[in-house]
Amino acid sequence: MRQPTDNPLWTDVDAYLNETLISSDPILESALAANAAANLPTIDVSPTQGKFLHLLALLQGATRILEIGTLGGYSTIWLARALPPEGHLITLEFEPKHAAVAQKNIAHAGLAHLVEIQIGPAADSLAKLHAADPKPFDLIFIDADKPNNPTYLEWALKLSRKGTLIIVDNVIRDGEIANPASTEPAITGTRAMFEMIGANQQGNARLTATALQTVGSKGYDGFTFALVTGD
């Protein structure tokens, strides 16, 4: 993947947007600092992307959110802040170390009462969630290991309702998503996910979807947005 510093203009524009539109936030800044101190990978969404997720959750009127891939809880905080007092966010994290850092960050943000972290392989956690027959989620954010994107999409559909918004991060992969010859698991997994989405828009369509390319301090990548339109 292209490194964020490859295009200084993208970083400069992100810095301008952050300064102009994103208020200084000690809680979120503290979360990023804690992630760095714990040597977590620097793959959190950017501040503008975090606020974008926050706004989508608000527009969705979400009261139940599922996040697949917690890392240090930066995006979790953005999403949880959009919940009403009775809301609930379940976030899934494979690495116990990451989950421990996220738990502290979420508590520091005053959101522990809204957020439940489940530790372990996400596919196993998703199967348990489905077996428990929970209420469907209003918004599902997928930002975990990319080779398993098809599996995560399949479970997201099972845990959704008509009107659920499914968002998938890191789907452009520096443009490699358009390379059918790629054998990189992150690319093949994401391409398989796109094909699943396309198939679910055919005939008795269950989804309507699009994807957007993004550039910025996180490099060249993008998001997929899929609205559940049928059963």
How is the topology of this model organized?
Elements: H1 8-21, H2 26-37, H3 47-60, E1 64-68, H4 74-80, E2 88-93, H5 96-108, E3 115-119, H6 122-131, E4 139-142, H7 149-158, E5 165-169, H8 185-199, E6 207-216, E7 219-228
Parallel strand pairs: 1-2, 1-4, 2-3, 4-5
Antiparallel strand pairs: 5-7, 6-7
Structural Rg = 17 Å
At CATH level 2, the architecture is: 3-Layer(aba) Sandwich
Low-confidence stretches: none
How would you write the strand order of the largest sheet? 3-2-1-4-5-7-6
Characterise this structure.
The protein has helices spanning 8-21, 26-37, 47-60, 74-80, 96-108, 122-131, 149-158, 185-199; strands at residues 64-68, 88-93, 115-119, 139-142, 165-169, 207-216, 219-228. It has 231 residues and is an alpha/beta fold. The radius of gyration is 17 Å and the shape is globular. The protein has a single domain, classed as Vaccinia Virus protein VP39 (Rossmann fold). Helix 3 packs parallel to helix 4 and helix 7 packs parallel to helix 8 (185-199). Strand 2 (88-93), helix 5 (96-108) and strand 3 form a beta-alpha-beta unit. The protein has a 7-stranded mixed β-sheet with strand order 3-2-1-4-5-7-6, with helices on both faces.
List keywords for this structure.
single chain, 231 residues, alpha/beta, Rossmann fold, seven-stranded mixed β-sheet, 8 helices
What is the compact description of this entry?
It is built from eight helices and seven strands. It is α/β, with parallel strands linked by helices. Helix 2 (26-37) packs antiparallel against helix 5 (96-108) and helix 3 runs parallel beside helix 4.
